[in-house]
């Protein structure tokens, strides 16, 4: 059997029965307005496909998507800067669902310094 026929025989059924992945990648899940969140990092899970910070904002617990490792580095951020107990301001887009306490960071402010993850979006 040729490679093309094998692909069709094995790959086509998988495509027909594949279910779409549910994820928050991209921006479609966010609101259109600008959103700012200030608080204290309580947990940081950094890495691919993007980092997730847990932030205590005056007793409300929020999740913030930050950039991929390369994007954070390009903006001048290090993992150590996003450590628990760090005061942070997230500038970005919040989830379109008002019940969801989730924000996607376009920029991060730490100690008065601004780190632009998506400068083209600001």
Q: Care to describe what's here?
A:
It contains 2 helices and 6 strands; from the N terminus they run H-E-E-E-H-E-E-E. The chain has 122 residues and is an alpha+beta fold. It has a 5-stranded mixed barrel with strand order 1-2-3-5-4. Strand 1 (35-45) and strand 2 (52-57) form a beta hairpin. The radius of gyration is 19 Å and the shape is globular. The model is unreliable at 14-24 (pLDDT under 50).
Short description:
The protein is α+β, with helices and mostly antiparallel strands and 122 residues long.
Termini, distance in Å? 53 Å
Query: Can you tell me the residue ranges where pLDDT is under 50 for at least 5 consecutive residues?
Result: 14-24
Cα radius of gyration in angstroms: 19 Å
| Secondary-structure class | alpha+beta
- Beta-strand fraction estimate: 35-45%
Reading the helices and strands in chain order gives HEEEHEEE
> Given the C-alpha coordinates, what overall shape results?
globular
Query: What is the arithmetic mean of pLDDT?
Result: 84
Q: Largest sheet, order of strands side by side?
A: 1-2-3-5-4
- Count of distinct strands: 6
* Helical residue percent band: 10-25%
Tally of separate helices = 2
Largest sheet: 5 strands, mixed, barrel
């Amino acid at each position: 059997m040729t490679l093309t026929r094998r692909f069709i025989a094995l790959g086509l059924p998988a495509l027909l029965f594949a279910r779409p992945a549910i994820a928050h990648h991209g921006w479609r899940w966010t609101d259109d307005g600008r959103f700012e969140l200030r608080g204290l990092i309580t947990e940081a899970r950094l890495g691919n496909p993007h980092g997730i910070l847990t932030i205590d904002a005056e007793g409300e617990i929020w999740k913030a998507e930050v950039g991929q490792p390369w994007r954070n580095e390009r903006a001048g951020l290090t993992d150590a800067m996003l450590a628990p107990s760090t005061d942070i301001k997230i500038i970005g887009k919040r989830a379109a669902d008002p019940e969801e306490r989730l924000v996607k960071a376009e920029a991060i402010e730490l100690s008065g310094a601004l780190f632009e993850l998506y400068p083209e979006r600001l």
